[in-house]
Specification:
The protein is of the alpha/beta class. It is about 35% helix and about 10% strand. The protein has four helices and seven strands. It has helices spanning about 15-20, 50-75, 95-100, 125-134, and strands spanning about 10, 25-30, 35, 50, 80-85, 85-90, 115. The strands form three sheets. It has a three-stranded mixed β-sheet, with no helix packed on it.
């Protein structure tokens, strides 16, 4: 069951949450990423966000997609994959040889062959930043 467990976020809607696993009164849900406290409220470690936070995520994502499309149409096709700790967006691709990405060739002055470093943030900090962008 753990292999098929939902790994994402859910909107913090009491009707939605109670309808996902109606038999759950206290404890962790089997399929979804939330835990109910003794009083029936979701715990803080649950992957639930408000509708406003979801809207901020969607708006930000749409902005990123439009910005990427505009850059591509303008001829900017430089690679700058993300890196989070020791994990990279390039580590599983089968196309490294044709992408011509080599982080050893990059430097501070060149936009080419540089990772975009993703800093670790708490979910609340991310939501706060997204709402400030709006």
């Amino acid at each position: 069951m753990d292999q098929h467990k939902y790994q994402g976020i859910l909107v913090s809607d009491p009707d939605l949450v109670s309808g996902l696993e109606p038999q759950l009164e206290v404890g962790s849900a089997q399929v979804y990423p939330y835990t109910l406290k003794k009083n029936g409220e979701p715990s803080k470690k649950s992957a639930l966000i408000s509708e406003d936070a979801l809207e901020a995520f969607l708006t930000h994502t749409e902005h990123l997609i439009v910005d990427a499309a505009n850059k591509i149409f303008a001829g900017d096709i430089n690679l700058s994959p993300t890196k989070y700790g020791s994990r990279s967006a390039m580590q599983y691709t089968k196309f490294k040889s044709i992408m011509n990405f080599d982080p050893l060739l990059g430097n501070q002055d060149s936009p080419n062959n540089r990772y975009r470093i993703i800093n670790k943030l708490k979910p609340n900090d991310i939501i706060k930043k997204l709402k400030e962008e709006k």
